[in-house]
Amino acid sequence: MRFRIVIPLASVLLLACLVPARAEGRWSVGLFAGQSVSTHHGSALDARALAVVNPLLAIGVETGAAYMNDEPRPGPPVLTAPGDALASLSDGITRNRGYYLGPAVKVGDVIYAIASTGLYEFADNSGHVSSPSGRWGASAGLGISGRGRFQPAAEVRYRWSRDATNEASSIVFALGLHIQ
Length: 180
What we know:
Elements: H1 6-18, E1 26-37, E2 41-54, E3 57-67, E4 71-72, E5 97-108, E6 111-122, E7 135-145, E8 150-162, E9 166-179
Antiparallel strand pairs: 1-2, 1-9, 2-3, 3-5, 4-9, 5-6, 6-7, 7-8, 8-9
């Protein structure tokens, strides 16, 4: 697995938790892991840092990796080997993964809506990058969380990315932790 995006951004997110905020307001960091469902299923990891502008609005950046099949748009689906049909929990981290990085917005408090857009980079089952320059994608979903400093959270999101030749999408069910 290539860590050129995930490790530096995870480090920045952890440092953001340790540095005291100099501006008024709060910061919120979210760390999530879950299941991504596309043609088959696999894992999803998500991390974000949000500046809480007011109690119902937060803006920031998110990154992560999710299992997403990057398939050609025209024509019938390509048949794969029988072993490829048995997806494991490591898929999304090791195979058929889509890395993403971009701005995010969260609206709400205990029950909230979350949306993001950003650059997606896809790798196939062999780990080869299928779109070296990346392409734009987006996500939208709903979540629920507590109001305390360290609260468990759950989210369901729909992620998609499309260009002239390929498209990828998945539904992500994730559990995590909000740190405020």
